[in-house]
Amino acid sequence: MINNRMNMSEIEFRIAEILGRSAIENDMEVPKDVQQLAQATRYLATQLRILCKVEIGDEKMADVILKQAIDILK
């Protein structure tokens, strides 16, 4: 469980890093809609992890999907 939390934290950090870097590159603060997108992404990631654990029995599958999402955001 701790390893999964570390993975989740790492994924959340990467998403925040990507969104923040985009704002810095555009010389602006992180807009409210981007902050809301980050919050929604975290919520969806949590729900995905729960769904994978309960319905599929494979919580690690959520990490694979989320890492692919990070690649898309890049």
Taken as a percent bin, the fraction of beta residues is: under 5%
The coarse overall form would be elongated
* Rg calculated over all Cα atoms: 13 Å
* Residue windows where pLDDT falls under 50 for at least 5 positions: none
- Order of helical and strand elements: HHH
- Helix count equals 3
Distance between the termini: 28 Å
Number of strand segments: 0
Share of residues in helices: over 70%
Biggest pleated-sheet summary: none
What is the multimeric organization of the chains shown? single chain
Provide tags for this entry:
74 residues; mainly alpha; 0% strand
At a glance:
With 74 residues, the protein is mainly alpha-helical. 85% of the residues lie in helices and 0% in strands. It has one domain (2-73).
How would you characterize this protein structure?
With 74 residues, the chain is mostly helical. The chain has one domain (2-73). Helices cover 85% and strands 0% of the residues. The chain has helices at residues 2-25, 32-56, 60-73. The longest helix is centred in the middle third of the chain and has 25 residues, at 32-56. The chain is elongated, with a radius of gyration of 13 Å. The chain starts with a helix and ends with a helix. The mean pLDDT is 70.
